[in-house]
Amino acid sequence: MTDLIDLSLAAARDAIASRQITAVELVGAYTQRVESTRALNAFITETLDQALARARAVDAGQVTGSMAGIPIGIKDLFCTKGVQTTAGSAILKGFVPPYDSTVSAKLESAGAISLGKLNLDEFAMGSSNATSHYGPVTNPWKRSGDDRALVPGGSSGGSAAAVATRSVLAATATDTGGSIRQPAAFTGTAGIKPTYGRCSRFGIVAFASSLDQAGVIARDVRDSAIMLQVMCGHDPQDSTSAPLPVPNWEAALTGDIRGLKIGVPKEYRLDGTNPEILALWDRGLAWAKAAGAEIIEVSLPHTRYALATYYIVAPAEASSNLARYDGVRFGQRVPGKTLDEMYENTRAAGFGAEVKRRILIGTYTLSAGYYDAYYLKAQKVRALIARDFADAFKTVDVMLTPTAPTAAFALGEKMDDPIAMYLNDVFTVPASLAGLPAMSIPAGLSGDGLPLGLHLIGKPFDEATVLRTAHVLEQQAGFTARPAGY
User: Fold this and answer.
1) CA distance 424 to 52
2) What is the pLDDT of residues 321-332, one digit of tens each?
3) H-type helices in 60-180, by residue range?
4) Exposed, middle or buried, 271 (CB in 10 Å: 0-12/13-18/19+)?
5) 141-162 pLDDT per residue, tens
6) How far apart are CA 334 and CA 332, in angstroms?
7) Catalytic pick from 75, 106, 117, 459?
8) pLDDT of residue 61 exceeding 50
9) Does the pLDDT value for residue 478 go beyond 80?
10) Backbone angles phi and psi of 386, in degrees to 5
11) Is 117 labeled as catalytic in the residue annotation?
12) How far is Cα 300 from Cα 267, in angstroms, rounded to an integer?
C-alpha cells in the first residue's frame, strides 16, 4: 500500500490505464491514509464509501477519462451535488447543493474520484486555516526540536495538508490573494493559480468575485499541469470565463528554458525580509541562469500599495457577496421576532470573527461618502498595478520571487494581530490584483527544517511558460523532503 501512495498522479494515471494497478487498490490505499491522518483535520466531509464504489466502476470500464481512478480532494468551497458544502462556515452547515460547480463536474467527467471536502478558512478569508468553523487544520511539518503545531497556510490549508500527507494525489483550491500559493509554500507542495477567467467560477462560493480563481495543489509541477488541464475551459454559465482553448500544459514541460527572460522585481526585496527567504530567491535565480535563462531586473513601482488596495477591494466585494446569507433561502436560520431580527441573529451566529471583520470593513468602504475615497481609489491603484506588470512583461517572459515572507508559523501565533496575518500575502497579492497566472514550488528548507517556496508570475493566459519554468526549477531544486511520519 505504501508504494501505491508514493506514485505521482502522472504515474498512477499511467499505471491504471495499463492495468498495472486497479483503481480499487489505489483508492483503498488513500482511504487508509485519510483515516490515519484525521488528527490533522484536513477534511470537513469524507466520501470514502462513494469513492470506493466509483473506483469499482472505473475498473469495470463504466467510468473513463484522463483522470480515471485518481483520488483527489475538493476544497469545501466548490459546490458538489448531494454532498454537504459549507465554505468552512457555520452559516452553511448542512447545506447540500442540488448541482455541481463547473470545476468539480469537469473532474468527475474526467473520471477523478473525490475522497471528500477539504477544510478551509471560513469563506476563504484567512492565511492560516485557523478561521474555519470546523477547527484549524494542522500542518504535518514540525520545526526541528519544536513540537508546537504549525499552520498549513490559508485559505486552502486543508488541500495543502491533504496533498502533503499523501491523503490525496491532488486537490482543488482557490486563490483570492494567495490562498493556493502560500499554503503550497508552507507544506512543501506545488500550487498554481491560473489567469483570472481561465477556470470557471460557477458553483464556487464567492469571496471577492473579481479576484477569486480556482486552481490546483499537487505534489509536483507535472501533476499540477495534468489536473489543471481538466479543470479549465470556457463556461457559458460564468460571464467572466475566458472563451479560449486550453493548451496541453503537460506537453509544455519540455525541460528547456534557454533564452527565457526572467524578471526580478526590485520592489520585492523588502526591508526586514527573512534572510533565508532572500537566499532561496538568489539560489532560484542562479538555477534559472544555469539552465540558460537571462535574469533581468524589472520595476513594479506600485507594489507598495498592493496590500492596502487588496484589503479594500476584497472586503468590499465580500460584504456584497455575503449579503445573501440571511437565513431565508439556504443554510442556517436563527429565528427572531421580526425579519430584521432574524437576519441579525442568523448572521451573528453564523459568521466567525474574521468574516465579520471583513464584512464591516467592506461595508464601510462602500458606504456613502467613503466609496470615492476608498473603493474607487483602490480600483484606480489596482489598474496601475496591472499596468506595471504589463510594462515589465514587454521585456521579460516570466518573473521569479519568493512565495511568502516566512516559513509556516505556529498555530495561534498571529491570530491576535490581523495586520501581521495579512502581511503573509505581500508577495502573492500583486499577481492576484492583476489577474495573472502564478505558481509556487517547493525549493528548499529553512534552518529549522520547514519548506520554503519560490514563486513564478506569468503573462495573462501564459500558464505554459509558468509551468515550463517551474518544472525546470523544480528539477534544479531537487526537493524530496517530506514531513516526518508521512
Assistant:
1) 38
2) 999 999 998 889
3) 102-109, 157-164
4) exposed
5) 999 999 999 999 999 999 999 9
6) 7
7) 75
8) yes
9) yes
10) -65, -35
11) no
12) 6
Query: Contact 190/224 with Cβ under 8 angstroms?
Result: yes
CA nearest to 26, candidates 51, 44, 45, 60:
51
Residue 422, pLDDT > 80, answer no
- CB-CB contact of 123 with 425 (8 Å): no
The backbone torsions φ and ψ at residue 128, rounded to the nearest 5 degrees and listed phi first, read: -140, -10
Cell, residue 352 = 466567525
Check pLDDT > 50 for residue 126: yes
- Rounded to the nearest 10°, the torsion over CA 80, 360, 120, 464 is 80
**Catalytically annotated residue among 132, 179, 241, 319:** 179
Integer angstrom CA distances of residue 65 from 6, 58, 169, 244, 399: 22, 9, 16, 22, 34
Res. 2: pLDDT tops 80? no
In the chain the domains, ranked by start, together with CATH numbers, are 2-254+411-477 (3.90.1300.10)
d(CA 79, CA 105): 9
- Give the pLDDT score at 1: 43
Residue closest to 267 by CA, chosen among 385, 380, 154? 385
Exactly one of 155, 167, 241, 319 is catalytic; which is it? 155
**Could you give the angle at which helices 463-477 and 221-231 cross, rounded to 10 degrees?**
160
Q: Lowest mean pLDDT: which of 268-277, 279-288, 387-396?
A: 268-277
Q: 484 or 422, which is more confident?
A: 484
179 catalytic per annotation: yes
